[in-house]
Each structure stands twice: as structure tokens, then as C-alpha cells.
Amino acid sequence: MLSRWRLRGYDAVAVPVCRAFTMKTTTLGKTGTAITRLGFGCMGMSDFYGPADNETSIRVLHAVIDAGVNFLDTADMYGCGANEKLVGPVVKTRRDEIVLATKFGNVRGPDGKLLGVNGKPDYVRKCCDASLQRLGLDVIDLYYQHRVDPDTPIEETVGAMAELVAAGKVRHLGLSEAAPATIRRAYKVHPIAALQTEYSLWTRDPEGELLDTCSELGVTFVAYSPLGRGMLTGQIRSIDDLSPDDWRRNHPRFQGENFQRNLERIGKLLELAKQLKCTAGQLALAWLLGQGEDIVPIPGTRSLGRLQENLGALDVKLSDADLARIDAIMPSDVAAGTRYPQAAMEYVNG
Predict the structure, then answer these.
(1) Are 41 and 298 in contact (CB under 8 A)?
(2) In the predicted model, is pLDDT for residue 193 greater than 70?
(3) Using CA atoms, how far apart are residues 4 and 14, in angstroms rounded to an integer?
(4) How many other β-carbons are positioned within 10 Å of the β-carbon of residue 329?
(5) Which residues, in sequence order, are bridge partners of residue 144?
């Protein structure tokens, strides 16, 4: 079916749209704020995944909102601020329709090199003001610490974040890649609305204590890279499918023997998806959505067609038998290779 989506600031374009899906919402932590069960990650529009086109990205962002998705995710480090500059004007024109999350903490140099993590109070305040300026907004709905600073007590960092809430610059607080003990310490300073951590069929590390801690405290779990950085869609069949400057070429799971082993396993997922009359990407997202009402995947894309596909996952129903077959294909330790290069893994607060 074709539907004409009015993309504000652009001519209307005809794109295929899935109208079968049912948009559902959940509550962001204990805030009372409703967010859609499927959010949208904006990172790849500006960084890491090869060249992008801002005009196309803006079209996709408007299409995301037109489809009813209200939860957008960005960060100050994506494109060294470029992603916030891209997303901000779109959000500003449709402010009442959006719950916007951004992050601070990962420090990058002018050349994009990661220089470390900073959670010092002065840095927190400085980053918030800079993000608000780039976004062109008065308030950030959800402000995350992107990575936990091992040299700054979490109480000091969250204390500074809480000051931003009191000042009216931020509405709610979140953490990313934080361990259960860290979350509990942070929560004693100020309620934490969301934890963002990688979670997918090939990254099941959160299962157990981390998910249990979030459930106990009423913290929404936001699953980033829910499609395994594209691998779980089955569309990446060779490393040459990635552009020469694509960050995934440096990723252990996309290299050498690891890549081949992962490719073989995902081939089995593709076969199951075909039997269930959905795509592998839809299967991966539906599986995540089925792990709990408080789990919100945030797939990203630069393609209107891929957006339509991802939205279709909302109406993929998986039986207990289906889930058992998925577990047999993708057990918790299935992925070959670590989920980040070693240097980046050092910043994961496991």
C-alpha cells in the first residue's frame, strides 16, 4: 500500500508504508511519561556507519514521527555534535510529539578520536548547555550519562545531573552501560528513569541481574543496537557490503573467522524468519519486545524502506514454540567476538 507522508519542509513523497502495525506505549521509568515501545536511534545518521545524507535523514526522521514513534535517541558524541544539530530542528518543529534523549560523558577530540570518559560535575553542566545550544531546545527530556566515569563517584555525577533537573534544563535522568551496583547507588541520589545498554539476540549480557535490577527499581531498559549493528537483518553477507570508512570493519564480530561464524548462525535465523513469514530483522525486534513491557528497542536506519520493515515487527507474534526455536539458534553465548574492540570495552561498567 502506498501512502503520502507529508514531510515538513519537503515535498510530499510516496513511500510504501506498513499500516498493519499497532503502536504501543510504555511508561518511561516511574515518570508517567509515555514512550512508544519501539524508539528510534539517530546515531547512524551522522557517524560510524559510513557516509550519510542529511536531507535523506531528515526525511526519515519526519517519517518516524509520522508513523507514531515518539522516542528519539541521540548523543553529543555522535558526529562530534553533528547528530544533535541534525535532530534538533526536526524535534523543535514537532516538540509536543517527541520525547528526546541525549547523552554526555564520552569525550572525543576534534578528529573524532575517543579520549576517555568524563563524569565530573563541571563537565556535566558544560555538556548539557552545549547540547541544548546544538539542539536549539530549552529542555532535554531524558539525559543520560553515556559511560560511567571510573574516576568520578557516580553520586557526584548524578548529583550534578539532578541539579540540571532542578534548573529546568532536563526532565529525567538515565544511565548507559552501568552495572547493577552503580544503578542502585545512582538511584539513591535521584530516580533513574532509564538504563540504555546493548541488548539483542547476539548480545544477551543484560539477562539476569541487570534486567532484574531495572525491573525492581522501575527503570525502563532501552536496548541499543537491537539489530546487532545490522548483522541480524541478514543484509550484510560480506565485509565488502560495508563502506571503507564504516566503523564496523574494526569491530571484532565483523572480522575474519568471527564474521564467518556469525554469518553462518544468522543464516539459520533467516531460515526461521522465512518460515514465520517475517524478516530476520523483524524477528529480532519482536523477540526483544517480547522480553518485557519495560524493554524499549531503539533501531536506527537511514532508509524509509527499512523503517517500514522495523515498524512491522510490532505486529509479529511469537509463540512459546517460536521462542524456543529462536533460543536454540541464538543462545546467550552465540556471538563470536566481543561486542566492542578491547579499548572500548574498558569503558563498559560491567
Answers:
(1) yes
(2) yes
(3) 5
(4) 18
(5) 103, 174
* β 40-41/71-73 pair status: parallel
Residue 205: name the closest of 225, 235, 233 by CA: 225
**Domains annotated on the chain, with CATH:** 15-345 (3.20.20.100)
Helix (H, G, I), strand (E, B) or coil at 239: helix
Pairwise CA distance, residues 184 & 25, whole Å: 26
**What's the CA gap between 260 and 266, in Å, rounded?**
10
Q: Give the C-alpha separation, 314 to 306, whole Å.
A: 14
> pLDDT tens across 286-334, in order?
999 999 999 999 999 999 999 999 999 999 999 999 999 999 999 998 9
Nearest to 26 by CA among 311, 296, 287, 298: 296
Q: In what order do the strands lie in the sheet with 220-224?
A: 40-41, 71-73, 99-104, 140-145, 170-176, 194-198, 220-224, 295-297
Q: How far is CA 33 from CA 40, 69, 191, in A?
A: 17, 14, 14
Give 150's Cβ-side CA count (13 Å radius).
Answer: 6
Q: Report whether 12 contacts 4 (CB < 8 A).
A: yes
pTM as predicted: 0.92
Q: Which residue has the cell 560535575?
A: 121
**Residue % of the chain over a pLDDT of 70:** 93
Strands 25-27, 34-36: pairing is antiparallel
Active site positions, annotated = 78
- Share above pLDDT 90 across residues of the chain, in percent, rounded to a whole number: 81
E strands along 12-127, which residues? 13-16, 25-27, 34-36, 40-41, 71-73, 99-104, 106-108, 114-117
Average per-residue pLDDT for the chain: 91
Residue 57 grid cell: 535523514
Question: If you compute the radius of gyration of the chain from its CA atoms, what whole number of angstroms results?
Answer: 19
